[in-house]
Amino acid sequence: xxxxxxxxxxxxxxxxxxxxxxxxxxxxxxxxxxxxxxxxxxxxxxxxxxxxxxxxxxxxxxxxxxxxxxxxxxxxxxxxxxxxxxxxxxxxxxxxxxxxxxxxxxxxxxxxxxxxxxxxxxxxxxxxxxxxxxxxxxxxxxxxxxxxxxxxxxxxxxxxxxxxxxxxxxxxxxxxxxxxxxxxxxxxxxxxxxxxxxxxxxxxxxxxxxxxxxxxxxxxxxxxxxxxxxxxxxxxxxxxxxxxx
Length: 245
Description:
The protein is α/β, with parallel strands linked by helices.
């Protein structure tokens, strides 16, 4: 698909424990197109602009784990910082009630295209941003649907990429987690887990699992060798009446 301003590619991606998915992504990290300055107003600089449109190893790890989770028709799942929403697509295809969220102005259009590529019906999407540069009322004035509901399970991958992220992310999760909630974070050993654990504990989330993830280099569905993966799956649980703040 040709899009004015940036280049894309479409690949068939293997998912451990589920059917392959066709994913449209940005061609590389050099892509940038923000003619109206929408991303800039949201606090997204030119260097970070293309990151939403790349398929990251941690998102594939998260998707593979979600593919193993039994589907409960009453469970509400939220993926935060979804980017290309790979895990959301996997859960959605299995029948889970998933909402994908991100702060990038193009995330929803890429999601819509990837749903079409895989012959899937509409998936809920909302704008979700921690440490937001704009107030919710400003976003609403721009016609942006802002995340407001609370969920049973919140998932995300490779989100602890800065020193300020642990506190902001934990606060955001608390804003959107039900009193009894579970949180899954896949982290590629970026070094901010201890701080994140402390901030999550302050909101009543107990670290129930810290699982080492280590996959050897393998070829993907297109025959391209994927790098060895090392990281952690962090699972937090909170029960009603145990919120910390």
